[in-house]
Amino acid sequence: MPKSLDTAFALEVKTDQLHIINQFSSSLMQLDTVEELLEYVTSEVVSRLGFIECVIYLADDKTRTLKEMASIGTASSHDTYHIDRTEISFDQGITGYVASTGKPLMIGDVSQDPRYIADSRPALSELCVPLVYKEKVLGVIDCEHPQKHYYNDTHLEILSTVAHLLSAKINQVRTVEDLQQTVMQLNDAQKLERSMLQIANLTYQSSELDSFFESLHGIITSLLRADNFFIGLYDKQLDVLDLVYIIEEGVRSNAHKKISKEQLKDTASYYLLNIDQSLLFTKEEFQQHIDAGHFKMVGRQAESWLGVPFKVNERISGVIAVQSYSKSYHYDEHDRALLTYVSRQISMAIDRQLSRQELEHRALHDELTGLANRSLLIERIKHAILRLARADKRHQHALLYLDFDRFKSINDSLGHEVGDHFLVKICELILGTIRNTDTFARLGGDEFAIFMENITDKQQIKDALERIQQVLAEPLDIDGHLLQASTSIGVAFCESSRDQAYKLLQHADAAMYEAKSSGRGKVKFFNNTMRKKLKNHADIENDLQHGIEHDDFELYYQPIFAIQDAQVVGFEALVRWHHPSKGFVSPNDFIPVAEDTGQIINLDLHLLELAAKQIALWASKGKAFGRITVNVSSRHFASLDFVAQIHALYSKYKLPLGSLCLEITESGLIGNLELATKIIKGLEPLEVKLCLDDFGTGYSALGYLHQLPIHILKIDKSFIDHLNKAHNPLVDAILSLAQSLKLDVVAEGIETEKQLAILKQTQCKFGQGFLKAKPMPASEAEKVITHGLV
Predict the structure, then answer these.
(1) Which among 775, 773, 771 is positioned nearest to 753, based on CA atoms?
(2) What's the distance, CA 152 to chain centroid?
(3) A Pfam family in this protein (predicted)?
């Protein structure tokens, strides 16, 4: 070929190659992925350059290997073109050499080069250029040809240009992909953070577990796939797994599933709970555990299984598990970490729920017996009364009010621990006699109630009462003590939705007191006579405060005298109520009402002030009245305020020291003897004496004498009544006890000369009674102070 033609042909080839390069440069703008790039380079660039066999490798910096990503070549008639070696180390062959040095290499005869590694179809010449961006080797373009010395400098130049452009584009694409990946990771992190915050808020805001689980599942499915999802609670004592929330094949199951002891041992959940660690299985790994006998297949086998255990308390453990049935979706360590976090939130939520339930139970149940308390009983009565509006007219409700007989004496004689065990045993027996729909409640102390709903026949009540009496008929062995239980019961009914819970309780209570006053083990039904008594009680309650404010109360004074010479040594102040419409109201009628309602506190303070005024008046007249004894409720001995109130009276009226004496009845129990002692000690500077009335009629007098600084004993009138014919040994015993404790004694209720004569022969120093004087107004008492008793 003439030289001019050679030059023209070379120019044409050069022009064509430049056109390919220019077209490649513009096409790079349209390509977005590395795979598209490499495919375009091999099919549209390298092949058009006339390179019949070419492979593009990309470098893996971590393993320092080259991995085949794209190739072109001439296939034989029998197969398609393929590369035998798809992965080459940096220290292997000509390709590895170029990757490790970062420099191109053109070899005319590879058979003479020891670095050459022959493929299934050996080549004779090779052109290999690195893909380099900013001195970092990204890969290699490796071209081979079956002819020796096929490649020339032009080929090297143009392939190097292609490699340069390709390297820049690969770096650009990777940078964009990295940025996209970073953005995706940030979005995923933000989504995860939002989800974690939602779960945390859900944990502390949800008041009901089922809705908590449902909301929790909704959040979890936004983060990972959960074709099957369940939460199970394992009770160690019962050895039962309760599946409290279940999603199967994407469908919610509303019913709890309890896995019995027999089935439980075969489950993956039980295996997980036993080893106490999370488990992440592929389908194959799950099968391996089945083959090893760790558990059995339950249900359809999943492609991926993830379970995490958690602990609620010493008794309750749990498991949360998810399953995927998709071959393209498998759980990973990220999912395990997520579900572990979720398990902790579930644990806290369940613990809070159980704690809340326990608090609610404590708030509505008696701690000793576990029975419903007054609040829960009233709530159930209210709801039951409302239901009467929709019920058959034959339906009614009944309330049985129980008071256990002689419980106080058992407590005092055998101790509170025996008393508590006695109560618990009685409650267990009675609980076995009532219906499942009945409410058995402890109202306080030894008072209980049984609320029976939807009674259609009063025979049902009689049968219930008979069952109670039967179970209490036999003596009970309580801590080695043989004790006989019995109960006084009052029964009241409500028939209308207009009835009120507190009135039903009030009526049953009134009936119980009637039963108690009739003897042990009696039953009384509320009736109209009791209704009138309650109305009178309510009227007195309403009028008491009015009487205090309008000065309707007056003190009468009964002299206390020396047994030997009848000299007056003081007075007992006794209250009289002159009601504006009812006239005289007996203390026996209004004092119990005042005690029950708490109005006794204000009434006592009012009477103490009346007494203080009278003392001050007599003191100003120079009357030698001794001391005035005022009866007060034991309720005053529950607060140190009483000390300040008595000091205030002494200061306000300038009372002589020791002129005021306080009297409590033995039956008016003082709950806190330690505090009562502090109160009495606080009154010592005023020389206030404490007198114990009705001594010998209650159960706790000896305890009082040992623990309270009592100064005076009063022998109850019931003992003095038996002094008509001879000495009463009980009176002698009381006098002997008082003498040994250095206490003064006052004999109450002296009504005959015979009684006084007998008392003169004893060590009893003081007395009072109708024989010498009845209670009298202050004006008459003043005459007694002046002239003495007749």
Answers:
(1) 771
(2) 86
(3) GAF
In this structure, are residues 365 and 222 in contact, taking their beta carbons and an 8 Å threshold?
A: no
pTM: 0.52
Rounded to an integer, what distance in angstroms lies between the CA atom of residue 143 and that of residue 126? 6
Average pLDDT over residues 7-33: 67
User: In this predicted model, what pLDDT tens digit does every residue of 162-211 receive, in sequence order?
Assistant: 888 888 888 888 888 887 777 776 766 676 677 677 777 777 776 677 77
CB 298 within 8 A of CB 267: yes
The terminus-to-terminus CA distance of the chain in angstroms comes to: 173
What was the pLDDT predicted at 567? 93
pLDDT for residue 669 is more than 70: no
Tell how strand 257-259 and strand 240-248 pair up. antiparallel
In 717-777, where does DSSP find H-type helix? Answer: 717-720, 729-740, 753-760
Which amino acid makes up residue 27?
A: S
Residue 76 has pLDDT above 50, yes or no: no
How far, in Å, CA of 429 to CA of 417, rounded? 19
SS3 content of the chain, % helix, strand, coil (to 5): 45, 25, 30
What confidence tens digit (pLDDT) does each residue in 723-756 have? 876 677 888 888 888 888 888 999 999 999 999 9
Mean of all residue pLDDT scores within the chain:
85
CB 106 within 8 A of CB 156: yes
Answer yes or no: is pLDDT of 98 > 50: yes
- Please indicate whether residue 76 or residue 61 has the higher confidence score (pLDDT): 61
Pairing outcome for strands 53-60 and 316-324: unpaired
Which amino acid is located at 634 in the chain?
S
Is it the case that residue 701 has pLDDT exceeding 60? Answer: no
Tokens of 727: 């000495």
Contact 731, 745 (CB under 8 A): no
Please count the residues of the chain.
790
Strands 105-107 and 87-89: unpaired
The DSSP-derived string for 380-438 is HHHHHHHHTTTS-TT-EEEEEEEEETTHHHHHHHH-HHHHHHHHHHHHHHHHTTS-TT-
Taking alpha carbons only, the member of 614, 593, 627 closest to residue 746 is 627
122 or 661, which is more confident? 661
The CA distance from 157 to 175, in Å, is: 27
Spatial CB neighbours of 418, under 8 Å, sequence gap ≥ 6? 410, 411, 478, 479, 481
Looking at residue 725, what is its pLDDT? 67
Q: What are the backbone dihedrals phi and psi of residue 592, each rounded to the nearest 5 degrees, phi first?
A: -60, -35
